[in-house]
Structures are given as structure tokens and as C-alpha cells.
Amino acid sequence: MTALLFNGVAVDDTFAEAFPMKATRLVVTAHDIAWARHAAVSATGLATSVIACGCEAGIERELDAGETPDGRPGIAILLFAMSGKELVKQIERRVGQCVMTCPTTAVFAGLPPDAGEAAALGRNLRFFGDGWQISKVLQGVRYWRVPVMDGEFVAQESTPVVKGVGGGNLLLLADDTDAALAGATAAVAAMRRVRGAILPFPGGVVRSGSKVGSKYAGLIASTNDAFCPSLAALAPRSELGEGARCVLEIVIDGLGEAEVAGAMRAGIKAIVERGAQAGVRRISAGNYGGKLGPFHFHLRALAPAAGGAA
Amino acid sequence: MSWRLVLRQAPALRVDGRLLSPAHLHALAADDVRRVALASGRDRIALGEWFDVLPGDADVLRIDGDLSRFDAVGAGLHAGTLHVQGDVGDAAGMGMTGGRLTIAGSARDLAGCAMCGGWLEITGDAGDLAASALPGDIDGMAGGTLVVRGRVGARLADRMRRGTVVVHGDAGDFAASRMVAGTLAIGGGCGAMPGWGMRRGSVVLAGAAPQATSTFVDVRSDAGVFWQLLARDLARFGPPFDDLPRRRMTRFAGDLAVQGKGELLVAR
Question: pTM to 2 decimals?
């Protein structure tokens, strides 16, 4: 595979292959940002991959009091699932168990009402009120008020579901663990500033990148042997040279192609600016030959303008 | 074609003005507009007997003059804009489903009764039973927005079940009586027994409020989130509601004599 050098960092001539997903944005507010964060972290927990979590979710950003419907500090979270039906289930489960339970919180839709088909947000959770719940329609939007032990849990009736993009990715090939972690941390910090995108894995980084399928029947994914340094001399399809001893992946889900591309661009830029001397010497991406996912994010198109042949 | 109607003289008897609607008149030529027959007592009298018919502004039917003897002006309005420069009689905007009716004057009783959509704004006062039900009917206002810049009479929003009513001035006794749902905000003083028999819904008292009756209970828990949502929504109506998000409120739940899921929100 050919690569171009950017500040000494090789960028492979390849692309990340991404898939359509169903997505929504929720705004969780609370008495102060700490409690909003508790709820948001909890609601987006165990949501790293649709392979086994049902959805992929993460914190998009913190919101000032002036940005939220109730004038309190809040957190915007994004949730992605492979189908609208699964997303509806995940919203109800996560908001019901992680937001409604958290002291002082309220939850609102974070997308315009006409952005997509409405999925239940407070519509079914209201029944927790056991008949004491009441609703209010304000400018065409219905809110539910459920009595709870600290007062009321207020939830917007529904949240729009839009078509999102999941599975954008970057593979960072580094000299060693320290260099890989430092590079990934810098890239994640830059990528998290892009609105409309999340990095669903712990710290935004995944070390157990996967390929589709397995030698074992029933497993839908297994280790990405092509990028495992321990298999560089063993696996016939290894993509690694002698230098790479640690590979980390950053997975991106976004509300659209532009958001995923923006996050990938920010990540590549962060790595390139650090230069090859920082230890991340190559950037690649995972794909399935372009046959499975309709969204192809070519690394060369996202890399900084100047480069030289490797 | 848009028209402007200018009243030459007040009719001797009351007139049913429900045909004075933009959707109806804009489709007619000037001569046909003058021939529109309005019910007056036992007779039907051509509109041209009372009004001069002039070209008007786009999409607005404007009527100038004292229409206090014209009832049901804007009744059944479903689209377009009707502006009345003067007072109107009973049942203005009755059964509106859409569109916009503005009255630069006062309205008599039953303004906005059985309304279920659209925007009705009265810059002057309104009489009794505004936003209420038609006499004998079960449901009152079921949607839309009624704004009264002046005062209103008794039984405001009687049997109201949906929509928003905003009164900038004082309201008479028994406001929100038998209310089923919806939002009522009163900026001035409120008469006796607000929320009598209300089952659900919200009544915001931003001005002088009477003491809550014994069938309402003081709710001491925090409802700040909902209050901010509601107060911010009402703030768009301007003074005296614009500072509601910065004011605290006391919430009384009731009427316990019925379902008891309504609330009086008294701004402090």
C-alpha cells in the first residue's frame, strides 16, 4: 500500500468504510453540571459497539445554561443504533434507568422537531408516574412531568431520529505503547471538539479493533489480525511492518458524513502536527473492500494539504 | 383579491358577522362582496348596505368601524388574516381553527369560545366567558392562542381543554372554572375562585392573586424545570410576563373537589 508523508507521518492510500445508522441527540440538564455529567456518563455507558451493546453512544459536549431549554447546565449526548426500533429501545432503557434516576435531571430532544421521525422519549417513561404524571404542550411540544422523590422528572415527549453515519475510523500505528497512547490522546482531544460526532470507546480509543466474522461459527466479529503487532510475522494478511509495535483505533459516529469527516480530519491533523518523531509513524483505516458500507472516507482527502511520497 | 371594508353606519339590529371572513370574501369580486347577505334579525341584508368595499392589503381582510353590533366576527376562521379596527360584538373568533384574527378594540362575551386553532388577539377588553364553551357544550377552547391586552370578564376559559390564553390585564371571578387542560396566564389581578372545579391544566397568576381556596393545596416540592419551560414560553408575550423566568412561584395543586391534577402557579 502506498503512503504519503505528512511531517514524517505516513498516511495510507486507503479509506475508512462507514455505515448508515439511526441517531438522535438528547440534552440532559441538571441542577449543576456535575449531576448532568453523572447522568450522561451513566446513560452512555456500555455503549461502545453495536456488536454487543445495542447502541453506540457518547457525550458530544457540555452545554451552558443559556443553551438548554430550562436554563440549567446540561450535556448533549448522541446515540446511534443499527435500526430505529433498536434505538427506540435503547433510548427508553437508558433514559429510564440512568437519567430519570439521577437527582435533579431533565431530558429534552436535542434536534429540531422536524429533523426526523419521532421516537418516544418521555412518552412511555411517564407511566412511572403511576397516574400522577401530567403533561403540558408548549408551542406544539409536549412535555411530561413525572413525580419523583426530589420533585419532578421532566421529559420531552419524543426525540427526532435521523440518519447518522457510524464506523468512521483511524488506525494509529506507533513505535510503542507510550507513543500510541500519547498520539491517540491528542487526536481524541482534537476530534472531540467537532460537534455532531462522538467517539464511543473508552477514552475515545479502542485497542481491540475487529474484523467481520470469525473462524468460530456464531461469532460475528473477531480480532483484526491484520493490525495485531504480535501477529505481524504470523498472520498472512498482516498490514504491519517491523516498526509498528502498538496500534490503536479511534472509531467515530456522526450525525452526518460531514461530521465524521470533520472529526477524522481533526484527528489526522493532530497526529501530523506532532510529527513522526512523537512515535505515531503511520495512519491507516479499516474497511471491507468498499463493498459493505456506502460511506468511504479517504484518508488522503482528509489529510493536510502538503505531503511527500513515502 | 384582498378587501378593506369601511363601516358607514352602525346597523339598527344585531348582525351575524361570520361571513366576514378573508377566505370567503377574497374569492369574490367587489360587486359580489357588496351582495353578500348578512343575517340581521329576521332579514338578510347585503353587506354593501353598511360597508364601503375598497381594495385592501395582500392576504388581509381589514374592517374599519365600530362592529359592536356584529356578532361572530371571524367565527370559523381557518386561514388568512382578519383585522378589525374597532370593537366587535359577541362570540368573536368562535370556533376558529386557524388563521389570525386581530381586534384593535374590545370584544363582548364569548370571545374565542370553542376555538381550536389559530391566533386571536384583542387589544382592548373582552367580556365574560372568553375561551369558554358554547352555551350547552361540553368542551371549551381546544387549541390555538387567545391574547387579550386589556381586561376580561368572569368565567374566563371555562371548560378549556387545550391551547393558551394570555390576559395582560385583570380577570373576573371563576377564571379557569371547570378547566380540563391547557394554559391560562393572567398578568393583572385575578377575581375570586380561580380554578374552581379545574381537573387539569395550568393557571399562571402573574399579578395580584386571591388566596387559594381550600380545595387547592400548597405543593412545596421543586417544580423549577417546568416553571422555566412555561415561564420562558410566556415571556414572549411581553410585559407583564417577560420577567416570569426571573421570578419564583408558589404552586397550588387542585381542584381537589374533582381530579386535582390542575395547578395554580402564583408568581412572586
Answer: 0.93
